[in-house]
Amino acid sequence: MMKELSNPFVIGKYVSKEYFCDREKEAELLVHHIVNGRHITVMSERRLGKTGLVEHVFANGLSDDYETFLIDIYTCKNLREMVYMLANEVFKKLARKQSLLERLLRIVRSVKATISYNIVTGEPEVGLAIGDIVQPEITLDEILYCLETSDKTCVVAMDEFQKIVSFEDGNMEALLRTKIQHLKKTQFVFAGSERHLLEGIFSDPARPFYNSVVFMQLLPIEKQEYIKFCQRLFSHYKKSVSDALVSRLYDCFQGVTWYLQLSMNEAFTLAERGGHVGEDCYDHILNHLVDSKRFTFEDRYAALTEKQKTVLLAIAAEYPNSPTLTSQDFIAKYKLKTASSIQTAVKALTEKGILNDYHGAKRPIDLLFILWLKQY
Ligand SMILES: Nc1ncnc2c1ncn2[C@@H]1O[C@H](COP(=O)(O)OP(=O)(O)OP(=O)(O)O)[C@@H](O)[C@H]1O
Ligand SMILES: [Mg+2]
């Protein structure tokens, strides 16, 4: 029986499989890799559902013989912060039973964790502060040893893994690779969207992680699957939605899951129980999404140089097409002067996190920002 949410189009978290659209083949493949003892790297463009897929598989796809851990290292600047995150996750998951907790504390001796007991459930809770991680490398060894000697197979997912490249410690790849190489049982799932960085880590023969993972490439959910999903959820709540509306929103956002979920979350609010949401709501939904971020967009736009503005407006005007930005046609159409000045602007826009490099093509990261610019 599905837990009833007030709005079934969930954004930014994983609730349960009922609210998760399709990804059956991808989930099956990820499980297949895991049960066959392979480390995996999941890549896709931004916001297509990498994290969601990992959460979905961790919640539903593996037997009780597996214990799973998921950390997002996007905000980590060094090994210490990463180890802190991992330690917290491992302690949280493994401390549920007194016997496991005792074992954990026996092994992970380099940190002094404080133990308290939840007054409601009586379960032990471990308190750990970043300052407790004094020797991150040793703590990491201890944690990995703990996972290796667990009676379950442990799977550790590291989201936004490309971040390790910019860790302050330096040489993080060699260090992590060496540690992982010595593990016999514990498995890793790496995920991220910065393709050139990830491919650099895993596909460059000169670098430590070369050839150490299988790649999984996530594509958009198929349009028909997403339509079916919307129909199912609307009808569960005794509402209906037109296929044409979902289809147009899908095209507008090129099937990028995050925007589809945002759109449908809003669409869902537009009908009472028993009501219908039709194609006529399309503009309302887009305006609503763009309006909610208008101030942010104004600031973001104001912070650009004139050249960057011109290039970005041209990209927005072309969206959803993505022309070659340095082609003669593009330059002429938008009166952009030289290819090299475009390249400079594009580089700056990439550094500002406005464009992303994927398959060698530059793509806007925030599609709502692009829609807003289209109106500009
Ligand atoms: N199969 C799905 N069905 C329904 N919602 C999903 C599905 N996959 C992802 N989502 C939702 O879409 C949004 C984007 O997904 P997610 O965060 O997993 O993408 P991501 O590829 O990890 O993004 P990022 O590049 O920002 O890390 C989230 O709100 C998530 O809850
Ligand atoms: Mg993610």
Describe this structure in words.
There is one protein chain. The chain is of the alpha/beta class and 376 residues long. It contains 16 helices and eleven strands. The strands form four sheets. The chain has a five-stranded parallel β-sheet with strand order 2-5-6-1-7, sandwiched between helices. A hairpin with a 2-residue loop joins strand 10 and strand 11. Helix 1 packs across helix 2. The protein is globular, with a radius of gyration of 23 Å. The mean pLDDT is 93. Bound molecules: adenosine-5'-triphosphate (ATP) and magnesium ion. Adenosine-5'-triphosphate binds next to helix 2 and helix 10.
Brief synopsis:
With 376 residues, the protein is an alpha/beta fold.
Strand order of the largest sheet: 2-5-6-1-7
Overall number of strands: 11
Which spans of ≥5 residues are poorly predicted at pLDDT below 50? none
Q: What is the structural class?
A: alpha/beta
* Oligomeric state, counting identical vs distinct chains: single chain
> Roughly what is the average pLDDT, rounded to an integer?
93
Write the layout of secondary structure elements.
Elements: H1 24-35, E1 40-43, H2 50-60, E2 66-72, H3 79-94, H4 98-107, E3 114-117, E4 124-127, H5 136-148, E5 153-159, H6 172-181, E6 187-192, H7 195-203, E7 214-217, H8 223-236, E8 240-241, H9 243-252, H10 257-269, E9 276-277, H11 282-291, H12 294-302, H13 306-318, H14 328-333, H15 339-351, E10 355-358, E11 361-364, H16 367-375
Parallel strand pairs: 1-6, 1-7, 2-5, 5-6, 8-9
Antiparallel strand pairs: 3-4, 10-11
The protein binds adenosine-5'-triphosphate (ATP) and magnesium ion (MG).
